């Protein structure tokens, strides 16, 4: 007879991750694919969506640089800012590729973290 004892089953954790985590995410992705082909990329709405997405990413990066937590908080603020600016400079000068800016900024940050280790 089904009951709460099924929660102890070895497969329950995987089923929970799939149901509670993956399924809701995939539903939105499927809806995006279904309706995204009908959207005009140059419309005012899409420009607003891109602006909001860019602002959210900028806010997260600013929070990580200005108010870090964990090991990142041990790196001096000036070194975190130098890593951010170095990554941005690499992005601008090396073809405006996001991956280049991220990798350069991360390399600078890792170098700063290694330099400040006791």
Can you walk me through this structure?
This is AzlD domain-containing protein. InterPro entries: Brnchd-chn_aa_trnsp_AzlD. It holds the Pfam family AzlD. The protein is built from 4 helices and no strands. The protein has 118 residues and is mostly helical.
SSE order and pairing:
Blueprint: H1 12-36, H2 44-66, H3 77-93, H4 98-116
Concise overview:
By secondary structure, the chain is mainly α. Helix content is about 70%, strand content about 0%.
Which key phrases capture this entry?
118 residues; mainly alpha
Overall mean confidence score, pLDDT: 89
The rounded distance between the terminal residues' Cα atoms is 59 Å
> Largest sheet, if any?
none
Q: Note the beta-strand portion.
A: under 5%
- Helix/strand/pairing class, anyone? mainly alpha
Q: Approximately how much helix is present in the residues?
A: over 70%
Counted beta strands:
0
Ranges where pLDDT stays below 50 over 5 or more residues in a row are none
The ordered string of helix (H) and strand (E) elements is HHHH
Cα radius of gyration in angstroms: 21 Å
Categorize the overall geometry: flat
Q: How many helices in DSSP terms? A: 4
């Amino acid at each position: 007879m089904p009951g709460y004892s099924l929660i102890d089953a070895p497969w329950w954790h995987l089923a929970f991750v799939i149901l509670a985590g993956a399924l809701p995410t995939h539903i939105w992705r499927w809806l995006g694919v279904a309706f995204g082909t009908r959207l005009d990329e140059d419309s005012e709405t899409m420009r607003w969506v891109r602006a909001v997405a860019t602002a959210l990413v900028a806010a997260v990066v600013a929070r990580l640089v200005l108010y870090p937590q964990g090991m990142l908080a041990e790196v001096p603020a000036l070194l975190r800012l130098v890593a951010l600016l170095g990554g941005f400079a690499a992005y601008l000068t090396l073809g405006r590729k996001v991956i280049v800016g991220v990798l350069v900024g991360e390399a600078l940050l890792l170098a700063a973290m290694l330099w400040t280790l006791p």
